[in-house]
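Recall the central idea of this unit: under ordinary conditions, the amino acid sequence of a chain determines the structure it adopts. In this exercise we apply that idea directly, starting from the sequence alone.
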Amino acid sequence: MTGVARLNLTLASGDYDRTRAIKTGEVQPDGVELNVVTLAPEEMFYRMARFREFDVSELSLSTYTVLRGRGEPLVAVPVFPSFSFRHSSIFVGANAGISVPKDLIGKRVGVPKYHMTAAVWIRGMLEDEYGVAPKDVHWFEGGEGSLVKEVDVTLPPDVRRESVPAGRNLGDMVAAGELDAFVGARRPAAFGERVRRLFPDFRRVERAYYEKTGIFPIMHTLVLKEELARQHPWLPRSLYDAFVESKRLAYQRLQFTAALPVSLPWLVAEAEETRALMGDDPFPYGVARNRKTLETLASYTYRQGLAPRRLKVEEMFWESTLAI
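Accordingly, the structure predicted from this sequence is:
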């Protein structure tokens, strides 16, 4: 973009090692001057999905799929700032009589936002891997998630959902026996003696899931206002290239063994074990490397009654980035 005035854009993003070089300015998208705003996911998603406060933003992948299916003027670039296995995100009351996934049938399960990506993946995994469908559970939505709900959805008639007031905390309700279980992106503060994980050995279970399916669940993607992509056709690819370079620098930093860059005593062993299982790029960007994962998430959002139709991957991302 030599000789052309740089675009001044606001980017909302979380604070991750793989995006830090963009935040510091060490990496800059070609033709763009970014004002980077670092926010917690809940606030960032709410402000972008409801009010379009940012030019470019990290956004919940399930929320984006719902909005895109409705024809909202947002488009995604196949950059995925957050991946996460979610077997570790199912918490149960110690006295709720739940020891295996099938025990969730008929139980009261809290979820901050029914449409949130972590919950979509958890429900899909429970149905596909363990035969527990969303209609088999009595859902309680809200509590701490009530004030930052990015999108409203109408659920299938066979899914039972009740609202929990904003003043309540779902994890505390599990600890008190008012709910039987909780699913969500954050570990509840009540985790401990009265609230435990459904899968205590979650690392083994999540690894087995990856070895079986090849899926590392995508949580967030990068979106921009559609008008910007139309006005500046080069912009989506410029953003993609910058995020790829920022991630490369993060990987490079993890390979520095003279002094640990992260406060984990066995960081080197962890990094080597991860590369042995998932290759040199465990957080892959682009459509090709993630097609199965993206198709699975699109299927789940439609099956669970969130998206109005099942999106094709080609509909989810800006055309110039599909071949990446």
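The longest strand covers residues 74-83.
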